[in-house]
Write a structure and sequence with these properties.
With 123 residues, the chain is mostly helical. It is built from 6 helices and 2 strands. It folds into 2 domains: 65 residues, Winged helix-like DNA-binding domain superfamily/Winged helix DNA-binding domain (Arc Repressor Mutant, subunit A); 47 residues, Diphtheria Toxin Repressor, domain 2 (Orthogonal Bundle). Helices cover 69% and strands 5% of the residues. It has a two-stranded antiparallel sheet. Strand 1 and strand 2 form a beta hairpin. Helix 1 crosses helix 3, helix 2 crosses helix 3 and helix 4 packs across helix 5. The termini are far apart.
């Protein structure tokens, strides 16, 4: 499935928020991302259609197994790339912003090579 960058951002946000609390609402996502209610509502609908999230009887958003796998992958890319950029001297804010852009476009091959390089150099 080819998810747009914005969809990946919503998934990552739901993932991050769900690590802090088991109760994630669409309004929480909107506040975290700085997006309007209609934008979040549309994105939630699309992610539900893709089978990546579901809404429980109380209106809380839950990642499906597939959604959680994809969100964890995106989040790992974000955290690893942020750390690599900080390791080479980029300030945390810029590193996080740049990692956020790169995480959606970097190939699995390149990302895995970066992780292997890090592992080799931290031994």
């Amino acid at each position: 499935m080819a998810l747009q960058e914005s969809g990946e951002m919503y998934l990552e946000t739901i993932y991050v928020l769900s690590q802090k609390s088991p109760h994630v609402r669409a309004i929480d996502v909107g506040e975290y991302m700085g997006y309007s209610k209609p934008s979040v509502s549309r994105a939630v609908g699309l992610l539900k259609e893709e089978g990546l999230i579901k809404k429980d009887e109380n209106g809380y958003l839950k990642l499906t197994k597939g959604g959680e796998i994809l969100a964890a992958r995106i989040y790992e890319r974000h955290t690893v790339l942020t750390q690599v950029l900080m390791d080479i001297g980029v300030d945390e804010k810029t590193a996080s912003e740049d990692a956020c852009r790169v995480e959606h476009y970097i190939s699995d091959t390149t990302f895995n090579a970066i992780k292997a390089h890090i592992a080799d150099h931290r031994k």
